[in-house]
């Protein structure tokens, strides 16, 4: 039976602000799963705490709404237990680059076969607009009437420095492109990072749809760009640092790196998943390893 | 005091090969048909310091190290001075080196106790016997064997078998063992006070550490994923599971940190496998947010918390049970959990399996408390108990968080075409939707609380060791049991009430003893008597007597006797 986008919805309505970028991101995520013919009962999505986390209730797949900054590590545990599932971790820029920074670093390093969607609204929105590392320096935020004192982190350069096997940038206001990116991210065998610029009409009012339209350049409009070229990727990241423009599309992809599981010697030739293997185990053969 | 017990202590610096000598001696003694209890003391450094490997030998099962030794074999001067005061009368000291100066106090002590001192330049003897420097260990071992008047053929056979995969010159090893055994410094009077107990049986014993037993138990229970991060004294669980993964085919990952390890366990458990992590107090503190999340999201979770003594970094390679509060009360919010305490090889093996069954069936975090003393001691046992049945309590249902009388909601392993469900750290309704509604918040909290009542009714009361007519009864958990069992073998006027399950707490049996007017003594390896306070909280009973030890050393039977005699 053909899947319908409604199959990915729970009976519950979203609680996001009108105009929130999460509507677009969720629509693209569900559309991508539907177009790839991956049913809700073959999908597990882990959520962070924050505005993106409030979307957990609205999704009809297997869902784990975990802790602030921790959705990536929970997704890794879920993925290693059953790789038959498509595993997606969603996380905000605050959770990703503050509370749980080590998780994204190690997810990329280990190259688990999961997809990570970073909802970047450039602030902690659910706690009503505090600065994150992606908030521009000097911007006045909740509790910072004189403006954010520190520099912001160049997350494009940071992520590329970790040698991700899939790195893409999307925009919550471009449903078709974002759907296409998420589909490719899911299909990529390895850790796929999709960093999504997200509208936040409540706490990032400067970045209006019009502002994004003026500042986004789609990579596929460039004459010569190969996401398989590390040189092209590094050049475009440098360009973004210099010009503050946002290039969307697949920045970099490398299919040559084995996933963590592929390298796991203990699982070579095992045809089942860990979630299918729970039963009494005879340990007699292991006694020779004692003391 | 120590009837039927001969005690041999190997001392030296970390990295000098004390463990090799200790292990070889333990194995060989077991081959004769005797029982041993071996424990290691070592400082938190790689080379140097003072470390020891003590082997207590008996013809009955023993569970703790005695405080003093008959034979002390030292490879460093520092270790000799450290352990010399603990010599028993007529004992033998073997020093691996040239003649030493003793302090006047030491001289008096040596004279008074009639201690024999043998200087053995083991390295020189090894080289002269055609061996290598490293075979100096064999020379020492051979000499100890002679002092104990045992058959050298058994020693040679056992040592060569142990080294069979090491590619060593077997003839040279044998000659070094014999060179020690036949060393001319041996005199008959050395052995006079050192009759080994008569072997009672000849079954080959299994030598196993607590951590090996808990790792094996986790595998027996169908654990298929282990995520760890090194921290003494839990690290050898990680080592054992990692080094056997090629055979067990488990998913094994040394995680980036304890936070990640715990989250990975939670994610894997949600997907329906059995996963585990192991750590010590500091690592557990980092995991506690995840433990709390498992509590409200009703995700099964199993962690081994192998305790050492002290706050912060504490005394990293020494024992204690100061993390009872952390295990029972750690974490924000009220949530159900189970805390179990292991005490020896068998209980490690059995209780970790129970932990998985409880975690699955009641959908809650289970914290399995171990201690350095239990984790790293080497037990000699007949065999491990029979494997427990895997019980998961899985069933499908309409709502994942259905409100039931037992508090237990339906849970099924996520799989294609089954109804998807949410696990959430938000308070939620029966279908997992976040809620702030007062009635709903209360109803779901009450549901989880009922799981604790259901669990409590399933758990056994604590076990009484010794005679029920004894007037003096110690009450404790963990490695205290071992000191008490060794003491009860000598004295039938005391008994011991032992708790495997710390939380939820069963108190009926204890309260009956209170009513009977028994003399109850709380015994704990921590400073404040944390378990005693937990009992007070539950029953309002306050222990009048407490035997507390918090210097990093475990209880030995001498501690119990000293307490009773003073």
Our measurement of the CA-to-CA distance between the termini of chain A, rounded to an integer number of angstroms, reads 57 Å
Give the mean pLDDT of chain B: 95
Mean pLDDT of chain A, nearest integer?
96
Q: Please count the beta strands of chain B (DSSP E, at least 2 residues each).
A: 21
Largest interface summary: A-B, 61 and 73 residues
Portion of residues in helices of chain A? Answer: 25-40%
At a glance:
With 291 residues, chain A is an alpha/beta fold.
Characteristic key phrases:
A: 291 residues, alpha/beta, 8 strands, globular, B: 566 residues, eight-stranded mixed beta sheet, seven-stranded mixed beta sheet, 20 helices, 21% strand
Account of the 3D structure:
Chain A is built from nine helices and eight strands. Chain A is of the alpha/beta class. The model of chain A has no long low-confidence stretch (mean pLDDT 96). In chain B, the strands form three sheets. An eight-stranded mixed beta sheet of chain B has the order 6-5-4-1-3-2-14-7, sandwiched between helices. Chain B contains 20 helices and 21 strands. Chains A and B meet through strand 1, strand 2, helix 2 and helix 4 of A and strand 7, helix 8, helix 10, strand 9 and helix 11 of B.
Question: How would the blueprint of this fold be written?
Answer:
The complex is a heterodimer of chains A (291) and B (566).
Chain A lengths: L20 H15 L7 E5 L14 E4 L5 H11 L4 E7 H7 L1 H10 L4 E6 L34 H7 L4 E6 L3 H13 L4 E6 L11 H7 E3 L11 H14 L2 E8 L6 H4 L28
Parallel strand pairs in A: 1-2, 1-3, 3-4, 4-6, 5-6, 7-8
Antiparallel strand pairs in A: 5-8
Helix pairs in contact in A: 1-6, 3-4
Chain B lengths: L4 E10 L3 H15 L2 E7 L6 E11 L10 E6 L2 H7 L3 E9 L8 H10 L2 E4 L2 H7 L7 H12 L4 H11 L7 H12 L24 E4 H11 L4 E4 L6 H9 L1 H4 L2 E4 L3 H13 L4 E5 L1 H17 L3 E7 L16 H6 L8 E4 L3 H18 L2 E7 H5 L1 E4 L40 E3 L13 H21 L4 E3 L6 E6 L2 H9 L5 E6 L1 E3 L4 H8 L3 E6 L5 H10 L5 E4 L8 H9 L1
Parallel strand pairs in B: 1-4, 4-5, 5-6, 8-9, 8-10, 10-11, 11-13, 12-13, 17-18, 17-20, 20-21
Antiparallel strand pairs in B: 1-3, 2-3, 2-14, 7-14, 12-19, 16-18
